[in-house]
Write a structure and sequence with these properties.
heterodimer; A: alpha/beta; six-stranded mixed sheet; four-stranded antiparallel sheet; B: alpha+beta; Alpha-Beta Plaits; 2 domains; 4 strands; 67% helix; elongated
């Protein structure tokens, strides 16, 4: 669950990225976070992943209060999240299996657990036959599927996708979004940051719109109206 | 899934992999460690030899206090007790002029001194001290005692050895500190470059929930491996250089004055200290270098 209560974020250079944001996303929900460039979307992601901290207000993520979280608790909190980026951020020198394996090593999974979980997740994202391929030998859509598989492999409570279709063509974008919808249907909370109006309109989901760091619209089944 | 397993095998494998993935910098780091340990080791061995020589000299740390001719046996015994009670005095022996003459003649060849009168020699106290550094002070204390009319001590030689030992120890200490700092700096830069090249990977790991330890350990292990490798190389080089110097000293006339310590008698100390120093330098260098990349 995500909860923002009167959250403000001001950077050291004086930029006020978030101004009094109130937002609640329940467990199991699927929400789009939309807004123009510079609206504060990236800051929200950084606040959620504890890369940045609110200058005012309260941020709760999966039971962690990020206002007073201890440094050593941050890795534990991040393990409850799966993060997907526009540029995939895969480790090129490792194979698809290696990329998923290292994510599981981080949480101290055993070899037996890895051998059981990784094939299951690769099957879920439709890449069972690509386990030994390196990311550089794959298409953009496939790389994003690997990134989704890596986000999923530790069975997180929530997935945060930051412009997951930004580098993909419309057909691949639709496939990726459909995959995220399927994962959400299995119980994982999903927060998708995107610019793509058509894609948002295609799915009848909750849409949270922000502009200039303020919430301007929050509608269930709503459309991208900015 | 909760944390159940340490990834020691993974850390070691990543550490080794990282060494070879930027081989040139690893080579530079090892060379630097070897050079630093060799210089540190050479000065330490010099100090060890100076210390041994001081030890030998301390075994002969003796001086003579000549006694007033008019003193009775009781007065001599009282003086002997006073000397014995001084802090740095290890032993005192009273030697009569006759005994002194006998000892002197025993060290001479021929009949030249055979008829030398006893009066040439004087009754004396033969005094051994514990600490050579307090030699001068002890001599001074003894000569101030009533009944001591003169003394004989190889003070210049003693002072020279003390100076050599102190200078060697001080220079070795300063050089060891400087070279250790340089080694740390080089190792830190090597690891920093490796970490910089892998900063994206580190950021991904952090975002996946990796702890600082999970990211740091492969780099620390890399530093330790480089340090140990450098230490072993430096040990064998040090052995070769020392053996060469030892042979040169022993085959020259210097061996009548100086008998160096054999490397065989101290090799385990050298190897142990090199290994510890190498591993410590490698570990600390890596630890410092990786810190800034963990702030994600």
């Amino acid at each position: 669950m995500i909860r923002f209560v009167d959250v403000c974020k001001e950077y050291n250079n004086g930029t006020k990225a978030i101004k009094g944001l109130n937002l609640k996303i329940e467990d199991g929900e699927f929400a789009f976070l939309v807004g123009p460039s510079g609206s504060g979307k990236s800051t929200i992601i950084k606040l959620l992943t504890a890369e940045e901290f609110a200058t005012q207000g309260r941020v709760m993520v999966n039971g962690y209060n990020l206002n007073n979280i201890k440094r050593r608790q941050i890795p534990q909190m991040r393990r409850t999240l799966g993060v997907i980026f526009q540029d995939f951020r895969l480790i090129d020198k490792k194979t698809v299996w290696g990329n998923l394996e290292f994510a599981m090593r981080i949480i101290g999974a055993t070899n037996r657990e890895m051998k059981k979980r990784i094939p299951y997740v690769l099957d879920l994202v439709g890449l069972s036959d690509k386990a030994n391929v390196r990311p550089t030998e794959m298409s953009g859509g496939e790389q994003q599927r690997v990134a989704i598989a890596r986000a999923l492999v530790n069975n997180p409570q929530m997935i945060i996708a930051d412009e997951p279709t930004g580098n993909l063509d419309p057909q691949r974008s639709l496939e990726i979004m459909t995959l995220l919808e399927r994962i959400n249907a299995m119980g994982t909370t999903m927060l998708v940051v995107t610019h793509e109006r058509d894609l948002v309109n295609h799915f009848s989901k909750r849409v949270v719109a922000i502009q200039n760091g303020e919430l301007i619209s929050d509608e269930q089944g709503g459309y991208y109206k900015l | 899934m909760k944390r159940r397993r340490l990834n020691i095998g993974y850390f070691v494998s990543e550490g080794f992999h990282s060494i070879f993935s930027h081989g040139l910098m690893s080579f530079a780091a090892v060379c630097m460690i070897v050079a630093c340990l060799l210089i540190m080791g050479s000065f330490a061995l010099l100090a060890t030899n100076a210390d041994k020589m001081m030890g030998q000299l301390e075994d002969e740390n003796v001086f003579y206090a000549y006694i007033d001719e008019n003193y009775t046996d009781e007065q001599v015994a009282a003086l002997e007790t006073k000397v014995k009670n001084l802090d740095n005095v290890a032993s005192v022996e009273f030697v009569t002029r006759e005994q002194a003459k006998e000892e002197y003649l025993a060290g001479q060849t021929g009949e030249l001194y055979a008829n030398m009168p006893d009066e040439v020699f004087r009754d004396r106290l033969v005094i051994h001290v514990y600490d050579l550094e307090l030699f001068s002070k002890t001599v001074e204390q003894v000569t101030q005692l009533e009944g001591v009319v003169n003394y004989s001590a190889e003070q210049d030689l003693t002072d020279a050895f003390i100076t050599i030992r102190n200078v060697a120890t001080a220079v070795a200490g300063v050089l060891i500190a400087i070279l250790a700092a340089i080694s740390l700096f080089i190792i830190a830069n090597t690891v920093r470059l490796a970490a910089f090249a892998r900063r994206e990977e580190i950021a991904i790991m952090k975002m996946c929930g990796a702890s600082d330890g999970f990211i740091r350990w492969p780099f620390v292990i890399e530093g330790i491996i480089l340090g140990l490798f450098g230490a072993v190389l430096a040990f064998f080089l040090q052995w070769g250089i020392y053996a060469g110097i030892y042979e040169a000293v022993m085959s020259s006339s210097a061996s009548t004055i100086v008998i160096p310590v054999t490397f065989q008698s101290i090799w385990y100390w050298v190897l142990g200290i090199f290994a510890l120093a190498g591993a410590f330098i490698g570990m600390c260098g890596s630890g410092f270098a990786i810190r800034r990349f963990l702030r994600v």
